[in-house]
Design goal:
There is one protein chain. With 368 residues, the chain is of the alpha/beta class. It has two domains: 2-138 and 328-363, Rossmann fold (3-Layer(aba) Sandwich); 149-325, Rossmann fold (3-Layer(aba) Sandwich). The chain has helices spanning 2-8, 27-52, 80-83, 90-106, 115-125, 149-159, 178-190, 212-221, 239-245, 260-267, 280-284, 296-308, 310-325, 329-347; strands at residues 11-15, 56-59, 72-76, 109-112, 132-134, 165-169, 198-202, 228-232, 248-251, 272-275, 289-291, 359-363. The strands form two sheets. A six-stranded parallel β-sheet has the order 1-12-2-3-4-5, sandwiched between helices. A six-stranded parallel β-sheet has the order 8-7-6-9-10-11, with helices on both faces. The longest helix is centred in the first third of the chain and has 26 residues, at 27-52.
């Protein structure tokens, strides 16, 4: 939200549900925490709106209160829960299936984070094209940039990364398709190409999302225990160094609403091999190699090609830097503020909407 205030002079009041039972991963705690956040979104947020009296409410993650005296803008990142319902817990699936369509219809504007997501929203939620706006996410180029060895060495030492590795950044959720990556690694080992490398998985288990059990079972089945490094959740400040240290970022996702890791990796001079599914071709463009998400052999061949062809690797690094430079949070803020202005002008056509002093109150997602 700081980019909105800095670039567009939009006054932002950010509110969120008070933290409740934080730190506990027990099922009853997750259930109570979810109920608390849902209740706050539908009831507590209304009190905040009465107190703040904003010109506009922006709900930046799928859901919002259905009762508000000001225009509503909602950001929908993806509709993965409709495409892969078996990947989600029953309470979350029920909640999103019921509420997301209601919020989308109630909203004056819906922001999608890719053209693929925009088309998905229009088709699945039956919204008119003029109501859905594509606004790409950005890269923090102050953090994600080429790094010196002195900046990356402490991170390498902290995680014991003393051999070459390929990297995956993201949760162990089923739609990340990590088992296909592991099968590709197994093929590379059998071909004699692997040469003692590692696969580093930077991301933890997401409560309520399936997938982590299959990942660990695949490691055991393929006997990759010595080849796979599970880092779990990695602090944000360590992620740029991990990108820089990696020989390659691999992202074979079945479904992404956008896909920030490829852009962040490219900004750190790391080549990218990704799935050609959903939004990832929009993000990667011609700067990386794209493969069919379920084709482990094609993925293995792409990985081997990048690791063995230095000229290709150099071209990918150059194109990646140029590609990533086009995605900035300042641009995201400018386009978001433009949607705000159009919504306010439509809501009050008899008066001119203010150019640079809209107040937008943003509520965080109820399942943060």
């Amino acid at each position: 939200m700081s980019a909105l205030e800095r670039v567009q002079a939009v006054r932002v009041s950010e509110v969120a549900a008070p933290r409740f039972l934080d730190g506990s991963a027990r099922p009853y705690a997750r259930m109570l925490r979810g109920a608390h956040q849902v209740t706050w979104t539908q009831l507590g947020l209304r009190g905040e709106l009465r107190r703040l009296k904003p010109d506009l409410l922006h709900a930046p993650a799928f859901v919002s209160t259905l009762v508000a005296d000001c225009p509503l803008v909602v950001t929908i990142y993806d509709l993965a829960y409709l495409h892969y319902p078996n990947h989600y817990s029953t309470p979350w699936l029920w909640y999103t299936k019921v509420l997301v369509p209601l919020v989308a219809r109630r909203a004056a504007a819906v922001i999608a984070i890719s053209e693929h997501t925009k088309r998905d929203i229009q088709q699945r939620l039956n919204l008119p094209p003029h109501k859905v706006h594509t606004i790409y996410l950005g890269v923090d180029h102050g953090r994600f940039r080429p790094l010196a060895a002195s900046e990356t060495a402490p991170v390498a030492a902290r995680y014991g990364l003393d051999v070459p590795f390929i990297l995956h950044v993201g949760t162990l959720a089923a739609r990340k398709n990590i088992p296909t990556l592991l099968k590709a690694v197994s093929l590379l080992k059998k071909s004699g190409f692997w040469h003692g490398r590692r696969v580093v998985l930077a991301g933890g288990v997401s409560p309520g999302l399936a997938g982590h059990v299959e990942v660990k079972a695949t490691v055991e089945k393929l006997r990759l225990e010595e080849d796979v490094v599970f880092l779990g959740h990695v602090p944000d400040e360590d992620i740029p160094a991990l990108y820089h240290l990696a020989d390659l970022l691999v992202m074979p996702s079945l479904y992404e609403g956008f896909g920030l890791p490829p852009l962040e990796a490219m900004a750190c001079e790391t080549p990218v091999v990704a799935s050609g599914a959903t939004s990832l071709p929009e993000v990667v463009g011609d700067a990386g190699l794209l493969v069919a998400p379920r084709d482990a052999r094609a993925l293995a061949e792409a990985i081997a090609t990048v690791l063995s062809d230095s000229e290709l690797r150099n071209r990918m690094v150059e194109r990646g830097l140029a590609r990533a430079s086009a995605f900035t949070w300042e641009r995201t803020a400018e386009e978001t503020a433009s949607v705000y202005r159009r919504v306010l002008q439509t809501a009050a056509p008899q008066t001119s909407a203010p150019e640079h002093n809209e107040e937008a109150k943003c509520s965080r997602p109820p399942f943060a």
